[in-house]
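Contributing new records

If you add data, match the layout below exactly. Sequence lines come first and carry their own label; structure lines follow with theirs. Keep one chain per record. Anything else will be rejected by the validation script.
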Amino acid sequence: MKTLLRQTNRGIDLFNRLVGWGLAGLLLVMTVLIFWQVFARFVVGRPLYFSDEIARFAMIWLTFIGAGYAYRKGLMISVDIVLEFAGPRLARVMRVLVVLASALFAFILVKYGFEMVGRVSNQTAPSTRVSMMWPYLAVPLGGIVILVNSVALLIDEVVGNDKEERS
């Protein structure tokens, strides 16, 4: 059973590695677009009409998908003073409760996020004329990343935390 759980965590870590590369790509696109916008506006004298909008959409995706990625890595802000004063058993129970609450929040993001995507799919962005479904799709997909990483964190609590292997 522990072998299966560890293999599941390895699969989730591979998934996170791919997500990390996607986030890096989005950050690169956003950086290039903003740099080119500044260059085109102040040097060439003809600003791009679409770069602000695409950079804004990339930032939305970076925020929602990046939150799930950071959650697995333990990079989210937390108040852990209670865990420091609690015993090991109580601390473990509290960590599991926090992961379950996060998973519930992520489930709500996924459920209502897909409903929201359906409602805005017929709207288009002003500059690029892209369906507003694409920026709003980051909400439920970010929730899915959080859900997947919640499973991994629960497995860590059951099997044992191997942070050195994940890094």
